[in-house]
Amino acid sequence: MSNFTILDGGIVGVYLLATMIAGIMVRKYVGKVEDFLIAGREMNLYLGIASLAATEFGIVTCMYTAQNGYQFGFAGATPGIIMAAAMYFVGATGFCVRPLRDAGVMTIPELFERRFGKRVRWSAGVVIVLGGLLNMGVFLRTGGEFLVLVCGFDVRYLEISMTVLLLAVAVYTVLGGMLSVLVTDFLQFIVMSVGLILVTILILTQVGWGTLTATVAKHYGEGGFNPFVHPNMGWQYVLFNVFLNLAAVLTWQTTIARLLAAKDTKTGLGVYKGTSFFFVCRFLIPGIWGIAALAVVAPDAVGGNTLHAMPHYLSTMVPAGLLGILVAAMLAADMSTDSSYMITWASVIYNDILAPFRKKVMSERRGLLWNRMIVSLIGIFLLLYGLWYPLEGDLWTYLGVTGTIYLSSMSVLLIACCYWKKANSWGAAAAIAVGAAIPVAFLVLQKVPATKGLTEQIGPYYSGIATYVAAGAAMVVGSLLKPGDAIAIGGTR
Amino acid sequence: MMAEHWFWLLLTAACVIWYSTITVFVAVKGMKDIRGMLERLAKKAAGTEDDRAGE
């Protein structure tokens, strides 16, 4: 039985109303496509930090990081530490992102065109959208599961609550684009942070640090504290996450969108550095919620579904009033993620995939209309895909594998584009093909009964590592096979 | 294993303290950023309309 009451419902209602008003009010500032997609490049440092943090923490994030805590103990927060280190390194050195921002492009594929040609730009756009949409396809259902479990609603309402949530997000994103996303992200960051901090303090005081560590030690021994000795993690888990998180920091569309929306390069790099430690919090805070659930909720109580343990636990532990703040916080987290993902992937579809089909320069008015239609279509895709895709294995691994479809090749292309003079279109094409083929094959083989055992034997970590290494090798081999036509970024053939 | 407990304890404490502080800081400074951003966009839009009127 959930502690969710009318008071909690009221808190959630006020939050939703405030967000919608703020999101819709800023639509009057959108006059051009550049305003719609990258907020006219007027984003400043603190708004950037709030927006990036809010975007990178959705209900889905909370669910898989809590699942990591439940399944791996404290060691499950390892990806967060790796990602924070990668964010700080990139922000402090400007590795790849400085030349990317200085180039004045709206998307990464636009930069690739200058070095590798139009075909590579188009192909890069396709894999970015494919990987990104597959990745965010599971967001809605996972978010809906959390809300239904925490609020104690009937499971029949899952689809309805998902649809209503998505419609609300779509309304302000379609009208105000990136501007609405930034302003609502700011509100959502505050609400989300207050909820996360309060619930974490409540858990730490009620369950206690001693119980948390004893629970991890009891279930996982030393492996619960050290990923290298955990039987289901090991060096391959850590190495896969090093590749994955560095690639995500360099090329993940929602992160890059903040860099490109920043008012200048220095601000963009500041957003990276200022947000870096948030990525430790992003894994460790829900991870602690998951460990607390492990201490209290037996796997049998959630039908063996480790993803449901944390929301099941919170629904009974968090008191009325605070539960409303928690649900508002999680809605805030989810809405900011959904809106941002819709606008950033729409930007790639409009700017890179549809670009070759535009015979003449489009008016700003027509461009805005196209972008609004693309955002709406992404919303419809999310609704349909989120309803029928059955998730296999743990959520973080699914997100890692689908993200790798483009992260592997795009990170290789970006590094080569910025720092390797011999890189050319052959290498780029080979890296894109190889980088997409391995994870797609893994996902397909996982669904075929005859090959399911093989994928379990190989595992997602070795498959992921192989993808990054193979994409890098494909870039080198492909580039060396084509006679030299090296050019600098921004140069012409 | 005790050393690892301390590592995770310190990291957890750092998360709660850093996150609480940055939330307040970003809430105050971010508001100013939004005002500034909207003012600059409004000026840009007014400039574009003036250019159109002058054509």
Helix content of chain B: over 70%
Number of helices of chain B: 1
How many extended strands of chain A? 0
Give the strand content of chain A: under 5%
- Morphology call of chain B: rod-shaped
* Largest interface by Cβ-Cβ < 8 Å: A-B, 45 and 34 residues
Q: List segments of chain B where confidence is low: pLDDT < 50 over at least 5 consecutive residues.
A: none
The overall strand count of chain B is 0
Largest β-sheet summary of chain A: none
What's this, in brief?
The complex is a heterodimer of chains A (493) and B (55). By secondary structure, chain A is mainly alpha-helical.
Helix-strand blueprint:
The complex is a heterodimer of chains A (493) and B (55).
Chain A: H1 6-25, H2 33-38, H3 45-55, H4 59-72, H5 78-93, H6 97-102, H7 108-116, H8 118-136, H9 139-151, H10 157-206, H11 209-220, H12 234-251, H13 253-261, H14 265-276, H15 278-296, H16 309-317, H17 322-353, H18 364-388, H19 395-419, H20 425-447, H21 449-481
Chain B: H1 2-54
